Amino acid sequence: MADIHAVEPTRRDFLYVATGAFAAIGAGAAVWPLIDQMNPDASVLALASIELDIGAVPVGQEITVKWRGKPVFVRHRTEAEVAAADAVDITELKDPQTDDQRLMAGPDGKLEKQWLILVGICTHLGCVPLAYKGEYDGYFCPCHGSVYDTSGRIRKGPAPTNLEVPPYQFVSDTKIKIG
Amino acid sequence: MSGNSTYNPSNGFTRWLDERLPIMRLGHDTAVSYPVPKNLNYWWTFGGILTFMLVAQIITGVVLAMHYVPTTALAFASVEHIMRDVNYGWVLRYTHANGASMFFIAVYIHMFRGLYYGSYKAPREILWILGCLIYLLMMATAFFGYVLPWGQMSFWGATVITNLFGAIPLVGQSVATWLWGGFAIGDPTINRFFSLHYLFPFLIFGVVILHIWALHVTGQNNPAGVEVKNKEQDTVPFTPYATVKDAFGLSVFLIMFAYFVFYAPNSLGDVENYTQANSLKTPLHIVPEWYLLPFYAILRAVPSKLGGVILMFGAIAILFVLPWLDTSKVRSARFRPLYKQFFWLFLVVCLVLGWCGGQMPDNVLFSVGGVDIIVTHLARVLTFYYFFHFIVLFPLLGLIERPKPLPESIAASVLGGKTAAAKA
Predict the structure, then answer these.
(1) Residue pair B285/B360 in contact by the 8 Å Cβ criterion
(2) pLDDT of residue B327
(3) pLDDT for A26-83, tens place per residue?
(4) CB B279 to CB A70 under 8 A?
(5) Contact B160 A125 (CB under 8 A)
(6) What is the Cα Rg of chain B in Å?
(7) E strand or H helix at B367
(8) B182-216 in b/e burial notation, b at 16+ Cβ within 10 A?
(9) Does an H or E element contain B340, and which?
(10) CA-CA distances (angstroms) from residue B305 to A39, A122, A127, B309, B310?
């Protein structure tokens, strides 16, 4: 580089930078499809919602359905479970949320307090928690010991957040649409 | 050590070849005339054993891939098909599955050998780092491979490990979804894991070549930890001396390997993996394969998701900077009275961490004055020691320790066994 002491950038410097920048953009454009192909494809995204009749679930019991390959808990809560979830002082929670914030309204606009719908995946490392287990009689994750209450809120253990509530709505009194 | 070549083409063809592609010369210089320290003990045979294991895994793996189907519907059945229908399928699969365990036994011995004799110290830092890289690639390969039979442990192990990436702030969930190719582990996941499980051994092979190249530049460390000073007195040619020693070590190792394949093929695996994956039911106790247990124990010891993930990866990452953490100028623990004791303590800590990783975290070990001491508590203490050993002891010991006098040379350490202070 004979002109290393040159103060003014030359036309050649400009060409170097411009060529390099263009090559970098081209390489990025070429690499992106190789990376993005690993994201969920169209057929996976198409299986996005299911409809479910929940009328047959008795009080105090829970069913598990599969949605987007994940388990979803549909829990018909007892009065006592609802009361226990309501009574919690949310300032004590790791991920503060009231019970009501985790529920949906029925077709009549009133909150369906007896129906708790959750993605049944522990927010720690993805195991499926066991229902009606653990200190709060909500959920207990057997993998690393996270304990959730009857609203699916994290109460003890390593999980960082509450069990996720999937997007759903009541189509009728006994029918919900998840997704 | 990469001195002048002593290769002498013996006939017209090899002379002709040598002038065009000196591959025979490379082989001769690498595996025949290459000088090795004459005091190498059997702990030095594991490099050769590892090379054998890599090749054995690649060959059995390529053959198994001819019969395996990477879909959620057929993976489990295709593995059973291999076991029952494919000619010699059972021995191929058992060899491959137990081969992974043998590979890890060998690599752990190889690594602890390096720790004991200070093989990571200057000028062998790059050699050590390449080894750490191989170890990391091995763990990734083993993880991908374990998912393929699509048993319950395959599925839930994969779920737990891929969810580790979910702990990354902000982008974690997107990264996990990207890894899965869906919203949970499923068909796209098993298919790509199969692809990567096939690719990674060849990456390992590439890094192994660099590892051996770096080894041949610096020369081998040896039990005395002093450099070769006089090639005539301190070394012997690789062939026949190291070749025969390696072959003997390998034979003994293969006897153990064969014992597992033929007499206890499932003793290192988890019975749960003979149940097909069920995404709605988590097994009561998820454990990884034995060779990942110490890291799993570290992960579970931390009561925070991100913190656990950071410490677990940190436990591996810290190996990469070890050459700069150790302040001692003396390599071999034979001449480091303090380090030697802590070395054995560290080995025990790693083994007990592994034991912790296999236990239920809430199991009570004992009670003191009404307070239950559980596995998690023990794992926390050991995790602390693991990092303490690297971050505090390695720098500190080199400063406060008074090493024993080093032998003048490798030859002196071998021949002067009766007189020199070198005897460990």
Answers:
(1) yes
(2) 96
(3) 999 999 999 999 999 888 887 778 888 988 899 999 999 988 888 999 999 999 999 9
(4) yes
(5) yes
(6) 24
(7) strand B364-368
(8) bbbbbbbbbbbbbeebbebbeebeebbeebbebbb
(9) helix B337-358
(10) 24, 12, 14, 6, 9
Cβ-based contacts of B180 with chain A (< 8 Å): 40
Question: B275-278: long-range contacts at Cβ-Cβ below 8 A with a sequence spacing of 24 or more?
Answer: B275/B151, B275/B152, B276/B76, B276/B150, B276/B151, B276/B152, B277/B72, B277/B76, B277/B150, B277/B151, B277/B152, B277/B154, B277/B155, B277/B156, B278/B152, B278/B155
Count other C-beta atoms under 10 Å from residue B380's C-beta: 18
Give the Cα separation of A113 and A76 in Å (integer): 9
* Measured distance CA(A65)–CA(B182) in Å, rounded: 17
B12 lies within 8 A of chain A by CB: no
pTM (two decimals): 0.89
Find the helix packing angle between B337-358 and B89-117, rounded to 10°.
150
Q: Is A144 a catalytic residue?
A: yes
B38 near B235, Cβ under 8 Å? yes
> What are the pLDDT digits (tens) for B316-333?
999 999 999 999 999 999
Looking at CA atoms only, how far is residue B193 from chain A in angstroms?
11
Categorise residue A115: left if φ over 0, alpha if ψ from -120 to 50, beta otherwise: beta
Give me B153's structure tokens. Answer: 């442990």
ipTM: 0.77
Cis peptide before B123 (omega within 30 of 0): yes
> Which tokens is B13 given?
């063809």
Q: Is B61 helix (H, G, I), strand (E, B) or coil?
A: helix
